[in-house]
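User: Continuing from earlier, I have the next pair ready.

Assistant: Great, send them over.

User: Here they are, in order.

Assistant: Folding the first of the pair now:
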Amino acid sequence: MNDVAVLEIGIQAMWVATKVAAPILVMALGIGLFVGLMQSVTQIQEVTLTFVPKFVGIAFVFAVGGNWMLNEIVTFTRVLFESIPSLLG
């Protein structure tokens, strides 16, 4: 196993992590921006007001895209385990 293979596996792992985390982060960012804007307009500064919509939005993302996320992670892991013999020999 050489350094190029290690770097390639690391880049693939970061790419899969980015693809899986992006929908969750975008949803949390969008909801946080919207709630923050509404809090500044209405001058209601309640901490729990930001938590509940983010929680619901992230739960929605998991419900809709959870199967795809899990499939991406399992596929990457399966390919990685299948490539072990070629990496060692």
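And the other member of the pair:
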Amino acid sequence: MAEPEKKKISKFLSLVLRHQPETIDLILDENGWANVDELREKCSKHKIDFTLEELNEVVETNDKKRFIFNEDKTKIRANQGHSIDIDLALKPQQPPEFLYHGTAHSNVESILEKGIEKRNRQHVHLSLDKETATKVGMRHGKPIILTIRTEKMFEDGILFYLSENNVWLTDFVDSKYISKL
């Protein structure tokens, strides 16, 4: 499948599996899973057609590993990044000493003052490495990488979760835990 077509399908899947399933009248269960056959049928009605093999290719080759199938590939969901209320059934985990957050230069002053808020998402997303955080920050302009003292946050009772695609999640990062690289 050509890259532009994969990107088109991936962006549409992000829309309906993370933010607006109602766009195609898709029903997600409480954990964000959608029936693959129903998803394909409803996407097709909106001129987004793909075979099971093409859907598998989109899931397998997505550089951010945004989507996951259940064991028998009858259901699919987004790994994280939802703006809708779903329960990913993630278990709290102890994070490493430091994690990173990539953002645009224009956001740094506000973040250093107010912290990192989840805004319209279910969680704040943190990266294990600076390279990934840089890629995230580049989407918003000139990237700035912030170092988060996550071990200290954890010691202070703040919960962390690790998504299926290795993105660390938490509810809020207070500015006292943030340093600019």
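Worth noting for the second one:
The longest strand covers residues 99-104. Residues 116 and 173 are 5 Å apart (CA to CA).
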